[in-house]
Amino acid sequence: MGLQKLDIRKLVVPNRGEIAVRIARACRELGIASVLAHADEDDVRYTRRFFDETISLGPGDARATYLDVNKVIDAARTSGADALHPGYGFLSERAELAAACDDAGLIFVGPKASSIAAMGSKAESRRLMQSLGVPVVPGYDGDDQSLPTLTAAAERIGFPLLVKASAGGGGKGMKIVRAAGELQPAIESAAREAAKAFGNDQLLLERYIEEPRHVEFQIFGDGRGNIVHLFERDCSIQRRHQKVVEETPAPRYSEELRARMARAAIAAAAGVDYRNAGTVEFIVTPDGEFFFLEMNTRLQVEHPVTELVAGVDLVHAQLQVAAGGPMPWTQEQLAQRGHAIQVRIYAEDPDDRFLPQSGTIAAYREPSGPGVRVDAGVMRGSEIGVKFDPMLAKLICYAEDRGKAIDRVSRALRDYVILGTKTNISWLRRVVTHPAFREGLVSTRFLADHAAELEPRVPEIIPEIAATLAAAPRQRVVGAGEPQVTDVWSSVGNWGR
Fold first, then answer.
1. If you placed Cys at 101, which of 108, 183, 407, 461 could pair as Cys (CB 3.0 to 4.6 Å)?
2. Whole-structure pTM value
């Protein structure tokens, strides 16, 4: 079913980096004018080239700019936009923004405010899933947050258990408790973190599953009761509860288990009358039990792997449905073909607790070739600051099967050159070439279990030396035979292997 002409004329994107570029490219393909709304202190020299216009959200960090609903709505009005795409992160899962768009007469490219609100609380979404027959992890999600009540619930659930912020995500306000004596300090610490990060200190308790896998289903609805799934993604390789490597199809799973999870994902989406793109996330035990984890009411960072394997454009579909168009596909039209893997490229130091890095990108060269896609938000000369997320780009590789996809992403990482700031590129290559990863033996404990084996085999490039090499001219070297040219890029590309 083809995409129809949209009624959206101008769309504002209050976001940054690679997702802003991704949305702008889709707008150009569909004939929609695009506006980048950005923080003054964010280096958007690369991003803005894909947009027709830019508008300032003012000075300050993310909280003072990208997270300010009033500033975002004012920017949309001032620019003359009739639609807003939030991307992901920032305000993308805030029912307040969706409602504010409705009040301002803007088309919100995303779900209804009521759907976002229903999934905004982990405790409330657990209760809703239980009512829909979707399996949830045994736990406690009650309103009584007193220590005696939480202690009694913990004794009933048993140890180990997980203390989680009800309104949270990204690992904030999350503590593993393995014995009764650890419970009270964990509750107090998690509540403080939750209040600081989310303005809500309510907690829930869940049974802690050892060596689980994190599997999510891409779903899509048209707001008229039609919902499809676009298959699963395995996002088990995580660091501090943040995804690092994502792939589809999920390795080592039966078709029967995939089908059961798909039905549960569609039931979850139907239960909140879902519209647009979203993701239903499950935790899967080693013996094949699965439980609802949460629903992300937005486009996900890892959506490109689904696009490559399913042969779809999710952002085109988002824009079409937001403008009142029909569902782009039926379930019968959707199928998986081949295998795709995505890795996230960060400005961070794997040798020093993965601390975010800052600096100027002195040289930048993306990999290319068949089956290689790079979604980037930077270029040579980009300033990497400390006020915003350190993700620089996403590398996505596609091949006819998983083994070939691993080989391709490994090769592409070898070809990826970023100089002037430390990155996780060499570390990612060690992850995807690890024998356990190749065998599909993944879980959320993968990085902890193999930490020693993922240590660097050679010293990493230090930024000062890298910047010097990047600035070095090509030199002609005359040997005993014919003259030949050596390129500093070739030497750099071999480092850290």
1. 108
2. 0.87
Region 10-109: CATH code: 3.40.50.20
Q: What is the pLDDT of residue 71?
A: 98
> Residues 94, 258, 298, 408: which is the catalytic one?
298
Q: Where are the domains of the chain?
A: 10-109, 138-207, 213-454
How much is the pLDDT for 166? 87
Q: Write out residues in the chain with pLDDT < 50, as ranges.
A: 1-5, 463-464, 475-497
The pLDDT value recorded for residue 210 is 87
pLDDT at 465: 56
In whole angstroms, what is the distance from residue 63 CA to residue 67 CA?
5
Alpha carbon 274 to its chain's center? 20
Q: How far apart are CA 232 and CA 248, in angstroms?
A: 6
Q: Residues 6 or more apart from 195 whose CB is under 8 A from it?
A: 201
Report CA-CA distances (Å) from 473 to 44, 116, 466. Answer: 28, 53, 13
One-letter amino acid identity for 45? R
The CATH number of 213-454, from 3.40.50.970, 3.30.470.20, 2.40.50.180, 3.40.309.10, is: 3.30.470.20
- The CATH topology of domain 138-207 is Dna Ligase; domain 1 (3.30.1490)
Whether 59 and 41 have beta carbons less than 8 Å apart is answered as yes
Question: What single-letter DSSP state applies at residue 474?
Answer: P
224 catalytically annotated: no
| φ, ψ of residue 164 in degrees (nearest 5) | -130, 145
pLDDT at residue number 476? 46
Burial of 220 (0-12, 13-18, 19+ CB in 10 A): buried
Q: Provide the 8-state DSSP code for 319.
A: H
CA pair distance 79, 9, nearest whole angstrom: 12
Rounded distance between C-alpha atoms, residue 112 and residue 49, angstroms:
31
Distances 395 to 26, 376, 477, 488 between C-alpha atoms, Å: 19, 8, 34, 23
